[in-house]
Amino acid sequence: YLSRLALKQQAYEDAIQYADQAIEIAELHNLKQLLTDIYSFKAMAFENLGQVDKALENERLQRELDDEISRQRERWADNMLRVRYQLQNKEAQLANANLELESVRFRNFIIIIAVILLASYIFYRFRIHYLLKEEKTRNQIARDLHDDLSGTLSSISFFSEAAKRVHEDSSESKRFLSIIDESATEAKEKINDIIWAIDPSNDDWISFLKKCKRFASDTLDSHDINYKLDFSEDLDLPLTLKIRQNIWLIFKECIINLAKYSQAKTAIIQFKKQGDMVILQITDDGIGFQPDEVQEGNGLKNIKYRATAIGASAKLETTIGEGTSWRFTF
């Protein structure tokens, strides 16, 4: 800095002196780029003093340093290219290893799903054969199995084939495997529901209401919906297999629809006795809907069908923006 300042002030002797001092410091710390600037200042100072030989000497030193710096940069760039190539090679090896691992996981997952479904099916057949004697009951269970599981198992088969076709695409494969996992879980839950429904030890309101409370709590908690459960303890309506199974499926469908579609913040769920009747009422403060515009997939027809099957009345009150209320009388 002092050398450059002196050079601007045309104090050429001082500029050379400061440059010599700066050279000692730059050489001590191996500051080659700085040295090229200093030699340039000295060359200009000597040139202005008319000392051409010394000016040329400093220009030569500057060029040599510039050449050396250029060679160092080329070596550094070459080394960086080697390192980058090695990293890319390692990344390719890692990607191949991950792809192979993903393929193994995919095969194992498909095998596990197949084993679970086969074991569940065998257990089902065994349980149904020994617990049910009447032909009418067996036919009803068969219809429930077909209605509840055929769609789920078909979706598992469809997405399994899709996952096979895209297993080399890791993200797409994971998406299909996630859908398969959800479908398998859904099938397992439906199997458990039917096994629970045909188990005679559950033919009482205490066991039934306990299951309803647990399902409502788990479902609404997972959707951050505040709720109040008002379940009477003096319900004495005969709880046959048919009544229990249909009330459960009605209750489950209503709670799932509330959680998925209502966008409610609060829900009130009541099981209460009114004279000789049992009232199930499910109310929310959600967005409501137009029943005529709702797709059949939301289960409205299924809910009303099951209510009719056990001689229950089903009343739906809903207004856009004002929530929904279901009232069933058994």
> Tell me about the biggest sheet?
5 strands, mixed
Structural class: alpha+beta
Report the span from N to C terminus. Answer: 98 Å
Inertia-based shape: elongated
Helix content class: over 70%
Strand content: 5-15%
CATH architecture of the largest domain: 2-Layer Sandwich
Instruction: Calculate the mean pLDDT score and round it.
Output: 78
Low-confidence stretches: none
Strand line-up of the largest beta sheet: 1-2-3-5-4
The CATH superfamily label of the largest domain reads Histidine kinase-like ATPase, C-terminal domain
- Number of contiguous helices: 9
In CATH, what is the class of the largest domain? Alpha Beta
Attribute tags:
Heat Shock Protein 90, 3 domains, 330 residues, elongated, single chain, alpha+beta, 5-stranded mixed beta sheet, Serine Threonine Protein Phosphatase 5, Tetratricopeptide repeat
Please give a structural write-up:
- The chain is of the alpha+beta class.
- The chain folds into 3 domains: 2-78, Serine Threonine Protein Phosphatase 5, Tetratricopeptide repeat; 104-200; 204-329, Histidine kinase-like ATPase, C-terminal domain (Heat Shock Protein 90), CATH 3.30.565.
- The protein is 70% helix and 11% strand.
- It has 9 helices and 5 strands, in the order H-H-H-H-H-H-H-E-H-E-E-H-E-E.
- The protein has helices at residues 2-8, 12-28, 32-49, 52-131, 135-165, 170-198, 205-222, 241-261, 300-309; strands spanning 226-231, 266-274, 277-284, 313-319, 323-329.
- It has a 5-stranded mixed sheet, with helices on one face.
- Helix 1 packs antiparallel against helix 2 (12-28) and helix 3 packs antiparallel against helix 4.
- The chain is elongated, with a radius of gyration of 41 Å.
- The N and C termini lie far apart (98 Å).
